[in-house]
């Protein structure tokens, strides 16, 4: 969408003429733009990749990534173990790049985490490109820097969780939509549908949240008749639906014997996995919606919900530093362009990013619970609105002070007011922990310098002093969240591998206030796991499965240490009805399974009861341990 004027270099009048122009021709790049963008991308790369060899490898997804890297069946269907006996409880699309990386570079933790780093840096670059086409170089660079320093973005891009892929693909979809509106071509709109469909493969229904916003923006802003716009929206939506459902349809028509059992389902149906277990069961009072397996404490979070979710003490410091500025920018960006033609592109951009932010805020508020890292998907919208808003406020500010310039009312006050508001909000978010207490005075002083410098500008004030005041103001906005962002480099403040977040908040931090939580990467088994694996390998005599385990919790460390077929009974929750007691007995009789590892940390099922009644307990001293702990190993070779 056509740029908001970069007022210091183009002037307000020229900028306002440009605002009504539709063109694919990018604005000429200022001399500072390319080195500044390179610096931002370098900061992003360092932040996301520093210490990648000790990345927060999600225990469940990390096990699946290693298995997927060694088996085409496990790769395509998202098998948790190398034999693909049962799938993960998500669609596998987000983990395909991770599995390919491990296949290419070997079973290393850094190899599994590398795609997240690349995806994070690509998201920053792509957001810069999109915002530049809409609001100009200043807005684009500001948005890219703000996204780079969003704490939850840094924490998430150093982990192996699907939201990084989801965010990248949705930002790509927003860019395609913007191009479709600007050029009036159909292909970019179809491309938008493809990107949304691919995002669905990464995080399922969450990818569809932007569809109503995209459809409304195209219908409101794109040229052409209402009928033509509606037909194109429907066509793009059909493409998004087809790409979204492609994997589910392939799995649905594949014979059950030729694919893994689908975790999280009681009926082995891919539509239950997506729309039941990962859909309605999270928003309704029915945990078994559409045949889903009820979630457990391990598979569901009940915190971080309600209308104040985005600003609570845990989530707020992760993502909400720019929230007041973004809301102010969205409101004023639409209001100040109210009299323009329907196809005004500047207003369309504020509607796009503002709608993205609003729809996610509503869904987060009404869900049963959210991990803090879910909010990473709104970071591009917050950054784009903040960057575009500052560019708009700057334009009005310069219009007031340029010779012959003009502005409406007191619009020129929006720029210093935005700086003051954002700096004050940083104090509010940081106050419960005072984590960045030494940075707060820095933020206050920089904000004062920026606000006073902009407020006191006179007709003879040198331009360099105005730019210095603006730079001080923007730095004041970012210095405190940057402190939270950099804290992710310290494992003590990086959250758990299952729930990455920045700073001294969350259950992981309070459980480990004096030391970082333990993390096990690929090919790094503990002494206990090594002893167990050695025993199982030594006593394995041609069985297909190394052992059967009760739930993924029991199998995860073994699968991360060594890619082997393991029969995971009960899936992630331990309650998925696979295998049945009869199926397990048949596998043992056929000499495909000999050992079973049960745990007291997961619910008892018919299959585990079969193990108790048919298999002999193995003393832990047999494989070099003094005690079982919460695990018990059984030998089913002598069952009757």
Strand-helix topology:
Blueprint (H helix, E strand, L loop, with lengths): L6 H4 L1 H8 L13 H17 L9 H11 L2 H6 L18 H10 L3 H40 L2 H6 L6 H21 L2 H18 L7 H11 L4 H28 L16 H8 L38 H4 L3 H13 L9 H22 L12 H23 L12 H17 L9 H16 L7 H25 L7 E2 L2 E2 L5 H6 L15 H12 L8 E4 H11 L4 E4 L11 H9 L5 E5 L6 H9 L1 E3 L12 E5 L5
Parallel strand pairs: 3-4, 3-5
Antiparallel strand pairs: 1-2, 5-7, 6-7
Helix pairs in contact: 3-7, 4-6, 4-23, 6-7, 7-9, 7-17, 9-10, 10-12, 11-12, 11-16, 15-16, 15-17, 15-18, 16-17, 18-19, 18-20, 19-20, 24-25
Description:
The chain is mainly alpha-helical. The chain has helices at residues 7-10, 12-19, 33-49, 59-69, 72-77, 96-105, 109-148, 151-156, 163-183, 186-203, 211-221, 226-253, 270-277, 316-319, 323-335, 345-366, 379-401, 414-430, 440-455, 463-487, 506-511, 527-538, 551-561, 581-589, 606-614; strands at 495-496, 499-500, 547-550, 566-569, 595-599, 616-618, 631-635. The strands form two sheets. A five-stranded mixed beta sheet has the order 4-3-5-7-6, sandwiched between helices. Helix 4 packs across helix 23, helix 18 runs parallel beside helix 20 and helix 19 runs antiparallel to helix 20 (463-487). It starts with 6 loop residues before the first helix and ends in a 5-residue tail after the last strand. Mean pLDDT is 90; it is low at 5-24.
């Amino acid at each position: 969408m056509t740029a908001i004027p970069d007022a210091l270099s183009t002037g307000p009048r020229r900028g306002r003429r440009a605002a009504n122009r539709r063109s694919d021709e990018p604005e000429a790049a200022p001399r500072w733009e390319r080195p500044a963008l390179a610096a931002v991308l370098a900061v992003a790369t360092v932040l996301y990749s520093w210490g990648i060899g000790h990345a927060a490898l999600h225990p469940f997804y990390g096990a699946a990534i290693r298995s997927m890297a060694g088996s085409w069946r496990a790769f395509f269907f998202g098998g948790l173990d190398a034999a693909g006996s049962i799938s993960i409880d998500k669609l596998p699309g987000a983990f395909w790049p991770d599995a390919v990386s491990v296949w290419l570079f070997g079973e290393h933790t850094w190899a599994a985490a590398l795609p997240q780093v690349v995806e994070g840096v690509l998201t920053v670059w792509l957001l810069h490109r999109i915002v530049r086409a809409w609001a100009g170089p200043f807005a684009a660079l500001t948005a890219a820097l703000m996204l780079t320093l969003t704490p939850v973005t840094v924490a998430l891009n150093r982990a192996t969780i699907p939201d990084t892929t989801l965010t990248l693909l949705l930002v790509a979809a927003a860019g395609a939509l913007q191009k479709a509106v600007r050029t009036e071509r159909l292909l970019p709109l179809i491309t938008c549908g493809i990107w949304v469909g691919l995002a669905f493969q990464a995080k399922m229904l969450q990818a569809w949240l932007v569809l109503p916003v995209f459809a409304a923006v195209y219908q409101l802003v794109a040229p052409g008749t209402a009928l033509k716009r509606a037909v194109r929206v429907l066509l793009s939506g059909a493409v998004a639906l087809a790409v979204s459902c492609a994997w589910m349809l392939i799995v649905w028509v594949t014979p059950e014997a030729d694919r893994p059992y689908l975790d999280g389902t009681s009926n082995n149906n891919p539509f239950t996995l997506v729309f039941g277990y990962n859909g309605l069961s999270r928003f309704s009072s029915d945990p078994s919606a559409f045949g889903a397996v009820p979630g457990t404490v391990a598979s569901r979070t009940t915190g971080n919900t309600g209308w104040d979710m985005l600003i609570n003490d845990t989530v707020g410091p992760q993502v909400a530093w720019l929230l007041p500025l973004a809301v102010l920018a969205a409101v004023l960006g639409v209001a100040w362009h109210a009299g323009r033609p329907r196809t005004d592109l500047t207003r369309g951009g504020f509607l796009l990013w503002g709608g993205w932010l609003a729809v996610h805020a509503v869904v987060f508020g009404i869900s049963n619970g959210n991990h803090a890292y879910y909010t990473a998907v709104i970071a591009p919208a917050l950054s784009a609105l903040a960057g575009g808003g500052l560019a708009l406020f700057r334009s009005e500010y310069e219009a007031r002070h340029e010779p012959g310039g003009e502005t409406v009312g007191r619009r020129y006050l929006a720029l210093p007011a935005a700086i003051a508001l954002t700096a004050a909000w940083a104090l509010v978010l940081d106050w419960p922990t005072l984590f960045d207490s030494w940075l707060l005075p820095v933020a206050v002083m920089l904000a004062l310098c920026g606000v006073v410098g902009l407020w006191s500008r006179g007709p003879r004030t040198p331009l360099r002093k105005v730019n210095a005041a603006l730079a001080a103001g923007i730095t004041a906005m970012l210095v405190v969240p940057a402190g939270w962002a950099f804290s992710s480099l310290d494992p003590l403040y990086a959250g758990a591998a299952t729930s990455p977040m920045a700073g001294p908040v969350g259950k992981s931090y309070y459980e480990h206030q004096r030391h970082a939580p333990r993390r096990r990467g690929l090919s790094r088994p503990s002494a206990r796991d090594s002893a167990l694996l050695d025993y199982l390998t030594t006593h394995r005599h041609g069985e297909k499965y190394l052992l059967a385990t009760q739930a993924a919790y029991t199998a995860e460390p073994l699968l991360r240490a060594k890619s082997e077929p393991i029969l995971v009974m009960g899936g992630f929750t331990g309650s998925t009805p696979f295998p049945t007691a009869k199926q397990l007995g048949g596998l043992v009789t056929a000499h495909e399974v000999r050992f079973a590892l049960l745990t007291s940390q997961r619910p008892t099922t018919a299959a585990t009861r079969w193990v108790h009644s048919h298999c002999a307990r193995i003393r832990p001293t047999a494989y070099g341990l003094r005690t079982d702990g919460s695990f018990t190993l059984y030998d089913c070779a002598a069952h009757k």
